[in-house]
Amino acid sequence: MSPAGIRAVVFDFDGVLANTEDLHLAAFQDVFRTRGWSLDRDAYFANYLGFDDRGLIRGFGADKGLRFSEAEVQAILIDKARRYEERIAKGEVLFPTARGAVSRLGVRFKLGIASGSLRGEILNILRLNQLSEAFPVVVGADDVVNSKPAPDPYIAAVERLDVEAGSAVAIEDAPLGLHAARTAGLRTIGITTSYPRHALKAADFVVDSLDEVTNELVLSLAADAGPQGPGL
What we know:
There is one protein chain. By secondary structure, the chain is of the alpha/beta class. The protein has 2 domains: 8-19 and 93-231, HAD superfamily/HAD-like (Rossmann fold), CATH 3.40.50.1000; 21-88, DNA polymerase, domain 1 (Orthogonal Bundle), CATH 1.10.150.240. 42% of the residues lie in helices and 11% in strands. It has helices spanning 21-34, 41-48, 53-64, 70-88, 98-106, 119-128, 152-161, 175-184, 215-220, and strands spanning 8-11, 110-114, 137-139, 168-172, 187-191, 205-207. The protein has a 6-stranded parallel β-sheet, with helices on both faces. Strand 4 (168-172), helix 8 (175-184) and strand 5 (187-191) form a beta-alpha-beta unit. The longest helix is centred in the middle third of the chain and has 19 residues, at 70-88. The two termini are 23 Å apart. The model is unreliable at 225-232 (pLDDT under 50).
């Protein structure tokens, strides 16, 4: 643990900064529908949230008894990405609380993003919302060999931010994302944008909004501080 305590905050992207989970779902539903498959909202949030696109396709195929060649997976990925970008271009996708949190935390901490989305998708949204300069480090699914729920995105993020894992706090909306961050050695804040509070009990602290993530809260999560009872 660094003597300086918490030095960095690493955000998940979808469901934390950007309200994009329903857009990802809709894009997949479009793509699957053209192929004669269905994916309902409950199944998406229960079984696949936290996976990158490739992991979702593989998981969906395994659950449905479908075998995809690499060429088929790639074709689905391209089709889904196109449909997702069409939806993103239609309007604002950041949570209303996102910009304030980034501004507030960026004064005190190094900021990064570790996401299961593609790097280009993340950068495009940041650019459209004038937030590119706020995040010197962005790790997407295509930047690592193994995306979430593996710890690789968070390991890469803290390395690029030049901080120890124990000196960083991750903000996540999904149990699989919390698992990835904790396995990498980060402290964690869960946010209830996608799952109820009880599903995020692995987090060191749980909030309902980014407005609750203050500098003081982040600093209190130093490794020797222990779990924060009121937020659990």
